[in-house]
Request: fold
Amino acid sequence: MRIVVAGNFNERKAGANFYATVRKLANGFTRNEHMVIAFSDRDVAREEGRFGFGRAGDGEANRRLLALCRQFRPELLVLVHADKITNATLAEIKTMPSAPRVAVINLDPIFLPENPPRIRRFGEVADITFITTADKKLESFATTTHRMAFMPNPTDRSIEGLECFARSDQSVDLFCSIGSEKGTPWRADAMRALKAAVPEARYGFYGIDGAGPVFGADYFDAIADARMGLNLNRSDEDYLYSSDRLAQFAGNGLLTFVARSSGYGDIFSDDEFAFYDGPDDLAQRLRHYLAHDDERRAVAEKGHAKYHALFNERLVARFIVEASFRRHVEGDYAWPTAIYGG
Reply:
């Protein structure tokens, strides 16, 4: 099958986002023996608009995608936060002789105010949207022509290649990086409260108190120098929602602390993730693993193996193809495969 994956491949940052989900999905489709062309809508728009103002390059990004689809005739067009692409462009692509299916990948939480309008905008023309939140909340975005489905954050062994569980010589006990504390100050407060409650731990906390977030190889260096990771989302109350931090931590072999309220206990066990109920329990479990490093390594190794087995890029890519084309969804997926609408 011919597939175009359109999204922010972010050439402007020269590889700093090499672990982005859009790259893992492109890898997954290729490894499943599809022919894949990557199209970076923001890079095209930025390059074409560099001598203009505002959104001067957006039109060229849309024209280039149209030209690509005419030349390549994809059977599936996958949009991963390709917000530069308009509904008019997608509608025109769907009138082409190849008439590709259009699948949207949405990695943001439903509770962000700007996300529901984005889902509904693409839902006017897309066949299906995959989002990293599960359960019946997806029904409100489904229509007779637009379906909704959950997808997990994929991991990829060619990207998440670290095995932090294999070592005990790291200089950091607990790692966490958030973009900034401005949007969600409670996360920074939770990180500071944990440091106060368990002062004996060595922390690698980024995005707070003057320590900026880390990206690219520096980010993976920070993960490699840690024994455990705190998967601190903007909210843990939406079923199975997580940022891609979960794939990066578990996929690289950190013992990953996950809020039990996230629902991931339905898929993983306490022998695979460090589930916690609230800040006091988090502090208690951190103290436990500080004192029991062999157990930390064993739990992290099991979590790493299971995450790669259940949520790898090939399985997630296969599910996207099956659901997009209304094929029979295989029964070996560990995540909820309900498809709403249509």
User: Anything to note?
Assistant: The chain has a mean pLDDT of 94. The longest helix spans residues 293-310. The radius of gyration is 21 Å. The longest strand covers residues 2-7.
